[in-house]
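User: Some background: our group keeps a shared notebook of sequences we're curious about, and every so often someone picks one and asks for a predicted structure to add to the entry. Today it's my turn. The entry only has the sequence so far, pasted here. Could you supply the structure so I can complete it?
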Amino acid sequence: MTDQQLARIEEILWHDCPSRDIWMIVDGARTVEVFRMLLECHLEYSCLYSGSLTPELEMAAPYLVQLEPDYRDTHRLIRQAWGNSWGVFLRSGTSLKNLRRHLREFLVVRDSSGNRLVFRYYDPRVLRVYLPTCVTAELRTVFGPVEAFWTESESPEEIREFRFRDRGLEEQTISLGQAQTTSQRK
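Assistant: Of course. Here's the predicted structure to add to the notebook entry:
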């Protein structure tokens, strides 16, 4: 990742936004480096799983991380995560406790046969495919206190932005190079 791409990602995430409203859900199951980085950083984070976890599950769990603009640990996390499907970014003005409670609702889902399944929606490859399939009521539930989700695109030179409006999902693909955007409405 170039310095220009990092600056562009931060510009997109913190554009017209209070600094403490940007979060990332990181996926510890992607690599042990995710958990190591969390232990080393000085960013506030909380595991989305609750209760007593085995060390293996603790290292592979998803974590909600509050990002700080222009902060070295934020830069390091974005640089390591980008292009490696480490997680998704989001904007929400609610508290860590409320946001964690909301995001935990989607960790386990039931299939059409009633079987419980782990839903790894915080994998950018999953979220960018899942959100466009949702009907308005589902989007309202998934977004809740979340104003926007961002994922890396299929190409590391682009970021995908998802917002829920009363009329449905708004998607944008934003170039990390040139100031170029393509929009879609569902």
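Suggested note for the entry: The mean pLDDT is 91. The helical segments are 3-14, 32-40, 55-60, 72-81, 96-104, 124-130, 136-143.
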